[in-house]
UniProtKB/TrEMBL annotation:
Top-rank taxon, per record: Bacteria
GO biological process terms, semicolon-separated: xylan catabolic process
Signal listed as a keyword: yes
Keyword Hydrolase: yes
Ranges for domain GH10: 1-300
Broadest EC class assigned to this enzyme: hydrolase
Gene (name only): xynA_2
Protein name: Beta-xylanase
First and last residues shown, out of full length: 31 to 331 of 455
Keyword list, A-Z: Carbohydrate metabolism, Glycosidase, Hydrolase, Polysaccharide degradation, Signal, Xylan degradation
Reaction it catalyzes: Endohydrolysis of (1->4)-beta-D-xylosidic linkages in xylans
EC number: 3.2.1.8
Protein family according to the UniProt entry: Belongs to the glycosyl hydrolase 10 (cellulase F) family.
Catalytic center residues: 234 (nucleophile)
Entry coiled-coil feature ranges: none
Amino acid sequence: ASTLGSAAAAQGRYFGTAVAAYKLSDSVYSGILNREFNSVTPENEMKWDATEPTQGTFSYTSADTIVNRAITNGQKIRGHALAWHSQQPSWAQSLSGTTLRNAMVNHVTQVATHYKGKIDSWDVVNEAFADGSTGARRDSNLQRTGDDWIEVAFRTARAADPAAKLCYNDYNTDGVNAKSTAVYNMVVDFKARGVPIDCVGFQSHFNSASPLPSDYQSNLQRFANLGVDVQITELDIEGSGTAQANSYSTAVKACLAVTRCNGITVWGIRDSDSWRASGTPLLFDANGNPKQAYTAALTAL
Ligand code: XIL
């Protein structure tokens, strides 16, 4: 196949990208988006601050633009993210306890209901575990409402949109380490107690300080063995040339080697679209030309 999306589809997978609504009028950007990708993740437009800027007042215009366009183009949609410590509206940041818990539950219900039937996979909870060796939860206003906030978010999302696959998503969980093992243990516990969870997302933001781990595939596999799908959700790899291309190839092959790894999403289209302040972590250069990394990813599929 000649595009990332069609090559992934031939393997029973999707190949997606993060999309920013304000860039869709850029014809180079939307041209690559239409040609190459068969899944999209709104980069910021579905986050709490974007969708509920004032408590109880929901704002879906930008996210709807991305969603409706994706449906027209036959692309899957990853919803991102219902409950997260970051990019909360200021009104939520100032809440705590039962008030915050109820606001979170209402937010999950409203947003998941608005997009009911349209979302392939939802990142229900994003980045709830701490970095480092403790395996602890990350401290946040949501965490301080009680350990059960994660399972409450998942049960609430399931009730609102029973057809969407419900994912837990995080970073620094790409290899086997204390943080990924803590997430693993949560999935074991959720499966044992019937908390609805269908997938785990591995953000996969790699750079020289945090390179593609050598046990990436085996880590994906150990989660898949628990009976959840696994997805590479925000892939970007700092660097250039052959080294970067080889890392992209390795990451794609790791997913394909895991039967339940059903999709790969890169976190932006061109290097100039990246959230990273500097560097060239993506598959297309600033002019929209495919890089060596692109050819490597396509060849690996
Ligand atoms: C980033 C976006 O790319 C930026 O535009 C925004 O300013 C900050 O958030 N982990 C996530 C994503 O789950 O939502 C983040 O996206 C990148 C890290």
